[in-house]
Amino acid sequence: MADYPPAALRLVASLRKLPGIGPRSAERLALHLLSAPLGASEDLAHAVQQAKAQIKPCPECGFFSEDDLCEICRDKNRDCSLLCVVEHAPDVLNFERCGVFRGKYHVLGGLLSPLDGIGPDELRIPSLIAVAKKNQAKEVILGFGTDARGETTAIYLAKELAPLGVKITRLATGVAAGSGLEFVDSITLGQALSHRRSMER
């Protein structure tokens, strides 16, 4: 039975490794790239290589940056005493699009998940405690979803941050039980942030 040439099959296989891309989507993307002008494909390849070479985690908060510090950490108008902890760097953009948060962020790099081998040592918890001390944080917002991993991580961080005497809050109503932030629209997330609740210690 005839099939695509080996080079095309390798392209499809590579595209299938991208999140959210199934076999049919990978095939359609591959066909689009193969039928596009050579310059368009070269532009895409160059953009990917350039992004990989230039974008790195901000050493202070963990968000995306092309400089020594990201745009948010360089902003002197931000409230350093207000810290929002998120799972991954894209979550920062979810909060920024709400337009209601003017503090700083800390990207944890994941959530606690013992079944997946992710414990406290795999996350940026020491740097979180260090930046909370350095900035004399008055409030730490645990900006996670309400699934099991988010709840477990929130409880653990609340215990770790307790000695600092900082106010610890979680997102309020609007975030459906058991959901992650990637499924929450910006208006709902903004309301959940504005009406956040304190965590019991």
Automatic annotation (TrEMBL):
Pfam families according to UniProt: RecR_C, RecR_HhH, RecR_ZnF, Toprim_4
Membrane-spanning ranges: none
Function: May play a role in DNA repair. It seems to be involved in an RecBC-independent recombinational process of DNA repair. It may act with RecF and RecO.
Source species: Verrucomicrobia subdivision 6 bacterium BACL9 MAG-120507-bin52
CDD domains named in the record: TOPRIM_recR (cd01025)
Protein name as annotated: Recombination protein RecR
Similarity-based family: Belongs to the RecR family.
Gene3D superfamilies xref list: 3.40.1360.10, RecR Domain 1
SUPFAM superfamilies assigned to the protein according to its UniProt record, in alphabetical order: Recombination protein RecR (SSF111304)
Zinc finger extent (C4-type): 58-73
Signal peptide range: none
Residues covered by the Toprim domain: 81-176
Protein's GO biological process: DNA recombination; DNA repair
A GO MF term: DNA binding
UniProtKB keywords: DNA damage, DNA recombination, DNA repair, Metal-binding, Zinc, Zinc-finger
